[in-house]
Amino acid sequence: MKLLNRMISWIASRSLAKAAASSPAKADSKYLRTASMTPESISAFLGAQRVMRIAFDTNDERYLIPLGYVWLENTFYSMTTRGRKTRMAAVNPKVSFQVDDSCDTRLFTYISVSGEGIFEIVTDAGEIERVILMLASRFPDTPDWAQAESAALWAKGELVLVRVRPHLMSGVCYAPPTSC
User: Nearest 5 degrees, angle CA 163-CA 128-CA 166?
Assistant: First the structure.
């Protein structure tokens, strides 16, 4: 057993030494760093992304989903069907959210914004008209079948425009120093 432990330690130390020699990222964060984002950089980042993850919570149930969105006037807007999320938000409109670019950048360099806000169904006709046009222009790649399904659901009242108004938000950039 003692010999096995020594062999494992030796292999681990060789692997770590080899990784350190071949990688520019070092423990002193000279090559990679985590930097907090300013409110301006958070807003610019949110305006460039299209998918958020939003978490709902009631006393006995949790629910986490991705939603396509448009960032407009410091508010997330999205179209969604009535169902579990709208039912949960009626009980507790407080939600958590997160947006990142790791799908594009991978896990080793990313920007992430997370926070808390209030989930609401939008009922004002003027606001609905204005935001739906923004959503349509934000998602020009929506397939024809999805557009047809959305129109049918909207006509039945099963599709609604929702917003999340953040009241707490922070962002972090994990990347080479020149990127953050």
Answer: 20
Looking at the chain, how many residues does it have? 180
Percentage of the chain exceeding pLDDT 70: 76
User: Token pair of 32, please?
Assistant: 């990679």
Q: Which domain holds residue 67?
A: 31-175
Work out how many domains the chain is built from and give that number: 1
Q: Enter the DSSP assignment of 168.
A: E
Q: What is the DSSP letter of 78?
A: E
> Is residue 7 pLDDT above 80, yes or no?
no
Strands 51-58 and 75-81, sheet pairing = unpaired
Q: How far apart are CA 63 and CA 48, in angstroms?
A: 25
Residue 180 lies in a domain: no
**Tell me, what CATH number does 88's domain have?**
2.30.110.10
Chain segment 64-122, per-residue pLDDT in tens: 999 999 999 999 999 999 999 999 999 999 999 999 987 776 667 788 999 999 999 99
| Predicted TM-score (pTM) above 0.90 | no
Question: Is residue 145 one of the residues assigned to a domain?
Answer: yes
Strands 70-72 and 75-81, bridge-based pairing: antiparallel
Q: Which amino acid is at 6?
A: R
Smallest CA-to-CA distance from 46 within 93, 103, 99, 8 is with: 99
